[in-house]
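Researcher: I'm comparing several assemblies side by side, and this is the next one on my list. It has 1543 residues spread over two chains. Same procedure as the others: predict the full complex and return the structure.
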Amino acid sequence: MSSNTASSSAGSGDSSAARKNSKRPKYSKFTQQELPACKPILTPGWVISTFLIVSVIFIPLGVISLFASQDVVEIVDRYDNDCIPAPARTNKVAFIQGDSPKACNRTLTVTKRMKQPIYVYYQLDNFYQNHRRYVKSRSDSQLRSPKFENQISACKPEDDVGGQPIVPCGLIAWSLFNDTYTLSRNNTPLAVNKKGIAWKSDKEHKFGNKVFPKNFQKGNLTGGATLNPDIPLSEQEDLIVWMRTAALPTFRKLYGKIETDLENGDTIQVTLQNNYNTYSFSGKKKLVLSTTSWLGGKNDFLGIAYLTVGGICFFLALAFTIMYLVKPRRLGDPSYLSWNRNPGGGR
Amino acid sequence: MAGERNRNKGMRLSKLYSFKCLKPFSKEDHHSQIGSRGYSRVVFCNDPDNPEALNLNYRGNYVSTTKYTAANFVPKSLFEQFRRVANIYFLVVAFVSFSPLAPYTAPSVLAPLLFVIGATMVKEGVEDLRRRRQDVEANNRRVLVFGKNEGTFGETKWKNLRVGDVVKVHKDEYFPADLLLLSSSYEDGVCYVETMNLDGETNLKLKHALEITSESDYDQEEFRGGVIKCEDPNEHLYSFVGTLHYKGQQYPLSPQQILLRDSKLRNTDYIYGVVVFTGHDTKVMQNATDPPSKRSKIERKMDKIVYVLFSILIVIAFTGSVFFGIITRRDVTDDGKKLRRWYVRPDVTSVFYDPHRAVLASFFHFLTALMLYGYLIPISLYVSIEVVKVLQSVFINQDQEMYHEETDRPARARTSNLNEELGQVDTILSDKTGTLTCNSMEFVKCSIGGTAYGRGMTEVEVALRKQKGVMTPQEEIKESSTKSVKGFNFWDERIVNGRWIDQPNAELIQKFFRVLAICHTAIPDVDGETGEISYEAESPDEAAFVIASRELGFEFFARSQSNISLHEIDHVTGEKVDRVYELLHVLEFSSSRKRMSVIVRNPENRLLLLSKGADSVMFERLAKHGRQFERETKEHIKRYAEAGLRTLVITYREVDEEEYRIWEEEFLNAKTLVTEDRDALIDAAADKIEKDLILLGSTAVEDKLQKGVPDCIEKLSQAGVKIWVLTGDKTETAINIGYACSLLREGMKKILITLDSPDIETLEKQGDKDAVAKASFQSIKKQLREGMSQTAAAAATNDPANENVQMFGLVIDGKSLTFALDKKLEKEFLELTSRCSSVICCRSSPKQKALVTRLVKSGTGRTTLAIGDGANDVGMLQEADIGVGISGAEGMQAVMASDFAIAQFRFLERLLLVHGHWCYRRIAMMICYFFYKNLAFGFTLFWYEAYASFSGKPAYNDWYMSCYNVFFTSLPVIALGVFDQDVSARLCLKYPLLYQEGVQNILFSWERILGWMSNGIISSMIVFFLTIHTLDSQAFRKDGQVADYSVLGVTMYSSVVWTVNCQMAISINYFTWIQHCFIWGSIGFWYLFLVVYGSLPPTFSTTAFQVFVETSAPSPICWLTLVLVTFSALLPYFTYRAFQIKFRPMYHDIIVEQRRTERPESGTRTTSIVSGELPVQVEFTLHHLKANLSRRDSWN
């Protein structure tokens, strides 16, 4: 302590020493806080042109997005209600859990030419794949490698059967969607390609090709689909798609691809097995056939949003222009100072 | 021996008492004797191995100033950290995160907390390590100690010193402990000491050894058998009470014999001393207390905001829990027969999701939610603010404009946590001497025998004349500066250059300057080569006197303990002769005595008492026959005081031997007393001889105004800052200085409150203290009332639109202040002062200064800044919200107690108007932005929760979230806090009014804070709802893939990162490459992170695996969403700003605009026109503002 103060004070005490190592701060634009800078200020010109530029960019973008969305042809068929025989509709849950046959026929009409590939989705509603308990109930290491077969601690209660680990374990896999669709056009079967519907990275890195289903759906309560124990997980694309959990309670998942064009007026017969229980939580089930544009599926929201924001900006630009014209304020006019607004008026 | 032992026992017991329960009482016990409580120390000189000495077990000389030790660093610094509410919250969260309650993984919670805590701990550790290194260095210094066995002096380390050791210290070495001076290389046992490390005073102090010990050379002869009994360790640097028992005699000890640790031996070859206090018992270590810790208003408000955020957090967590409870309860119906959401297996579940115990489940969910929404509380806020403040201080320290060339002192921010408070100062309380003035005294005038000498003009006189419109004849000033000697600005052809001997009153003049040359405590320093003499004096006044007498022919050139030698011009022969005066006693100056005297025997063997002092105490001590020139002298003193000069009355008297003998005995008796009231007794004794004095005249010394003070004060008052001057000076002097530094102006109405009225004086003479107090109280009350009615009348007649607002200046003297600060009157006093634009308190004591400061601080609730340079300002500096010390000539105490140190008063302008304004703005904006960004982020989590049936699933990957505050958004905020500036320094100074933004706290008002918070919530809504609707259930790419949890998370998170960083970009005012770097760098870093983290194996990266490269980046809709969301989220703020600038522009907006509109014209028009035009506008504004301000103050 003493040494420090001594050395610092010695400099100021002795003037000749001070000359040599002066404490004068070194000059640099940085230390003197004089770095060249641009200071954006909101002059009327800037305000109006910013709004204008945004609207000029956004409105065309909105139009393009809308067009892209309009290009997409989409057939949506809700079947959860209709596929229950009328007498059973008073207790749908009992029906779906019962043993009665679940087959159901639907007919879809193509109203506009659909170019291949046409994607087949199933859409579930009010299904919380993002429920915390549900999301956590999986074992990534177990999916990847047979070595980690026993890492099932996160999977409760679908972790083991009689001490034997379930592969794939956990609620997600257990509740695998099990409705099936068979499509035919004008009475000729329509091939639905179920390969290549999963993400490549999932197939290659998340789901091991040496991991085979074990003890799956052997518990006292069967959830959803069963898996062929002879096919490795990396080839079980339905499972892979299902296990890529959805973010929101309404979601679609890829079922397959139709690789032929569908013409306007074609009728498509769907024979579906209505197995999956969404009735107990009153969730809807839909079958969706959709083409894609460069922007993806059919959704006007993006285009409308762009148009709206662009419109608002245009309106604001207009409003500000009028305001500046009607009631101009001289720039830098001190009479506008905030605590000087009402001369004479007290507060 | 038995008696000795008994006493020891008693002492030990009392020592215990004094350290424990009875400590408070020991202070009051003034009459306690050596050996009793508080005075129990016994030092066996040169005998530290004495069993009794060992029994006492005094501490060693090892010194540790570190806050931590290696052992306690971790727990202690952790404890310090977790005294903050926010940190405790995060700690609890971190613990809970290991339980299944956690919405995310434990490491992702722990990592940022550890980072933040770790960063702070490293900072603490580094600081402490530095302290430790200094300690080690100090502890290992070498000193010569007498070894009893060897019989000679041998080297040892400082830390091995023990109480009672005899040491030898050489020239320019530091004293290793508090020593008793035994003898020195000088025969008479004096030595010179520099105490810069203790009090910052650079002048040398003279110390005397006792005569009995000073005669021996302890290299030859061992010092044996001495026992010192003295006071216990205490922090009073300038007192020491003790006795030396030596050779069967008792010798009183005083501070004169004590050499304090950390002071330095100068001008003396070596000394011998006995160690009295070691290590932490030394006075310097006892003094090392931490200054009171101050927190800025903004920080205190910030705590409140954190509480607001906590309540928001609790409210939304609670809301979520209620919904979660309801939904969970419904998962099982019909007594467990029907499962609603069968896929989460509500039938086989843990307590956290159990529909049968839904209340409990929702309680646990509440805990989960508290953790999940923890992002509302910015974990990094405190750390960021600390970093920012340290960097801001660096800028303050580095400012060249605040560097003072002559003293080689830059400005120093000693505490960094008050930077922004500098921008909010409402009242400045300033000391006068050394703060407004240079405190370099110049001898300018004197009055000798009723004749006034000295033709120089003081600055105050110049200012006064200027105000009256009289131009000063230039030559008059010119003439006076023919010869430039520091401290001497005197010109009078009648007496300079030895011409005084021709004056009729030459004898008086001779006596007068002899007093000046002898009656002082200065030390001459003769330059070996040139023979020039300079002086080391305790006060600049004294130096000025000795210099003046030297210049006029009474050159003081040597001092020993008992003699003072002068070269004199004999007034009869005119020849130079050397005269030696035997110095018998020095009756020292003290603030209560207000005088000093010396008793000398002149070469003619006559005893003389030479005395100088303040007029208030000196005139009453004059002899009947000594009042010959009283009237004239008083007249001159009055005139000098009006000219802002400091005056002292010079007197002398001859003392006859008999009187002296009797007095000396009494005086020495008093001196040998060892009780605490010894000083009072000495004063009383001194009082007895300082009487019947003969008046010689008076001196007038100018205390020069510092450079730029009037301008600075003008600027500060333009900025709406009130300035009070608290000074110990006389009323007239203070008023004149007030005028000189434009604190008082022509046309300002002066309200003078004083007790110098005849009736009170008569009462005082009667000596009835109660009556005086009562009358004084009434008088002050009356005067305050009158002042109030005056100001009220002025306020009533002042038309607010009228520009000529009547301004008031209040002047109050110390005596009146005592009553005005009374509980019953302080409210009225405060009210009156708030109506006055400047206030001067004269003749105020240090304590009153502190009291006034406290009154202003607590009474108005506004920020006060105290500025001072001397030890007498310390109280004031510590009391005020901000203490600014002037690192000038008068020592370092003020600087040590201050929060900021500047070399000159005028730097205050820049410190406040530029740095204060900037720092305030930066911190305010930074905190607002912090809350904005955390709300914008945190609320997206909440909205997502609502779409995940409130189950507690965060929308993003764990690591995205934990990096949010630390990596993706922190640097731009820090850049904002460190670099942002609304207008340049030049403009800050040009438009001082801008400062009101801080004083009125516009940038950190609740409106603004809540505004930013709602902006954050709106942004979060825009981000969330736009994103989920564009990335609805449809395919989001050409290949038909749909957006899943990970894609939505990444898109939304990118939108948040873009939004908050772009929000920063449009809300800052100052864009340099640094800002560009940080803002765009943060966004870039997010993508980099995404790529790197996404390429880790999926067991680590989980939902982030390959998500950017494979899924999001190739999808145009993700990018389009990003653009849409970012622009939309910024739109509300941008529109608001556009409207605000249009309809309610802020000051800096206008000023920036002014500069903008000006710039293109400045090329064509001459700058003089431009600059001539603006001030008119500004002045106009100023008038209005002032009017509004005064109205606001008076109506509050």
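Model: For your comparison table: The first strand of chain B starts at residue 41 and ends at 44.
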